[in-house]
Amino acid sequence: MKNLFTIYIILILTLSLTNADWTSFRGSAGNGFGNEPGLPTKLDGNKSIAWKVELPGRGLSSPVVVGNKIFLTASSGPRQERLHVIAVNAENGETSWERQFQATGRTVCHSKTCVAAPTAVSNGKVVVAQFSSNDVFCLDLDGNLKWVRGLTLDYPNAANSLGMSSSPIIADGVFVTQVENDADSFSAGLDLGTGKTLWRKSRPKGANWTSPTVLKGAKGEELAVLQSGKGLLVVEPKTGKDRWNYAEGASTIPSTTVMGDSLFIPSNGLTAVKSREDGRSHTQLWRANKLAPGTASPVVSGDKIYVLNKANVLTSANPSNGELGWRLRLKGPFSGSPVANKTHFYVFSENGLGQVVDLTGDEGKVVSTVDLKETILCTPAISGNALYLRSDAHLWKFGG
Amino acid sequence: MKKILYLLLFVNASSILIAKTVYDPIATLVAVGPMGEGNEAAAKAWPKAAALGAEALPELLAAMDKASGIGQNWLRAAVDTIVQRTLKEGKKLPTKELNDFLANTKRIPASRRLAFELIQKVSPKRAAKLIPGFIDDPAPELRRDAVALIIEKAVGESNEDSACSLYEKALAAARDVDQIELTAEALREKNRVVDLPKIMGFLMRWKVIGPFDNTDREGFNVPYPPEKKIDFSATYDGKNDKVKWTDFSTSDQFGKVDINLEYGELKQVVAYAHNTFQLFEARELQFRLGCKNAWKVWLNGKLLFARDEYHRGQRIDQYVFSAKLKKGKNEILVKFCQNEQEQSWTKQWEFQLRLTDASGTAVLAGNRLPTPTAPATKR
Predict the structure, then answer these.
(1) I want to staple B335 with a disulfide (CB 3.0 to 4.6 A). Which of A361, A398, B202, B296 is the partner?
(2) What top-level class would CATH report for the domain B200-356?
(3) How far apart are the C-alpha atoms of B87 and A318, rounded to whole Å?
(4) What total number of domains does chain A contain?
């Protein structure tokens, strides 16, 4: 009995630690939701900022958090050819380690974005950082290098002159990346242990800034969801084999959001689909043309999905039928995506205005704002009752 | 005599055996190549390389000379780790050896820049004193800092002639496009003549032919007659009419060959531009191209690179690729395609090409004529 109780306590502790980690773009579940009830609801510049530290370079990439470490990428130099992977102590903001690399792929991109656009990803043991130059670095949590790839060095036409921004995922132990562009467009699965290419498949030619997401299959297996202008392709991470395809087109900017076994695709407004039991096809649940997201990807919280449109209007909707709920105009424009816990929604405008929306009432209500007076293009991270955010110059911790 | 021979054979065999058994982690990092080849061995070697003392830093930097871009990144991570650990332990970096390394201009620019940054990290004053000496350095990564210093002085100089003199010095030394643009603009503001196309090495005079068909973007892969044979007297079937080669020159300060000036703002079309580039000796050069249309470039009939991308932005030096040019006349052919898009930002049908050495220094053709002051052709 005592042993069972010990196991139970260990299990609870493990689960709570796992829940605290924010391991990829828009969180470990790829939907912007963080189960952190103690997040600050007042983003006051003086009181809620735990610390603010300088960064060695530019970046749109989001922080990822594993345990007590925050991992972040940045790029610097006259051509942004210097690539940084940084580990920061979540308690005090001090740099635990930094590794600098040189881009081997093209670093040309639109002035609004930069080479450190994709968010790194972690499985809790290693962190893999990809850049717009398609350089990929896998390090353990202590900064020991495990493998390196230069995907534009390997495939010289794999580039986008406006910049790449797709954030990779780790699914079924495989690093999955979408290197999709007008010229040599592909997705690939790399062995997480060695960086070797497990599979590489051609993808629709066309610039694509969306990020893949992880979907749980009928048997609990992890699948990789690849979005493009053509639609959605669900593949097996270890082989790249197709499971099913949604071919009715999709946006090339906001990404698909996962909630349980449902996918909310920025397609013809917003389209909800789910895998059929055979795992080889899908069912469309609903389609709502009034729920078209702008640049930001939708976020889920509780029993609702929230969509920010091009006019900066936030709309709540019922994920089971697409029925629209309340609407609230926020101050944009927005490049980063929102995040949320069960009670509050957090988003930062390009002008650096942080806005907190209370989700608990009949109507959404902005309950706090903070003006960071810096351009913010990234999506925040949530971990340990804290909110992490970066600009080209700084990394902030709110609360915690 | 026979014994001596056996002895020599034994010594030789032993040394081979020792060479095989001595494990060199740095060499393993250097050996990492494309497609992830060598990563597994490097992952085992890296902790050993990263555990070396600070005295190994010059050796790690020197190894970068032989490594690919991927191998260099493995070495950089080891350097970072050693430096961070050494400084954390309160120990010193071998600054004299790093200084010697930096002074050796035979080393590759990337490793010398890294050596300089290590000196800068532990001895900023010492590093600052080194910067003015980089003004003629073959490494553009170092030269940039010296140019920035001169620009800073020029900005603060109240006497116009002295300021211009400083800007001219900076412009002559600058290799990065942003610094070239900044200094040229400052000189022009002070009514000084700047022949930017010559300074940067843009190709300004071309023979052009078109338009050929690019409906549904298929013309990109159609080998129209100029791809098979260059015959300036020939006439071919174009998209709408017969087409023939004409002279085209540009006076754009960044060498933009705006073919809309020749053919009008057409859609779904292909044009070719040809340049004869004369060299007095064979040498490897960098082709530095900017183009927001799909394009292909051939040198002496050999395809160098092709890119099927439209209207994702254009930059000077957007694409950099190297090729060996022969002594005498070299034929450069550029194919550039316009697609079907109708938005206002998709009108451009143009490219800009310059040839430089590896440091970005312009290489001018032996047959280069003076920079045109006005377009020779205009529709």
Answers:
(1) B296
(2) mainly beta
(3) 56
(4) 1
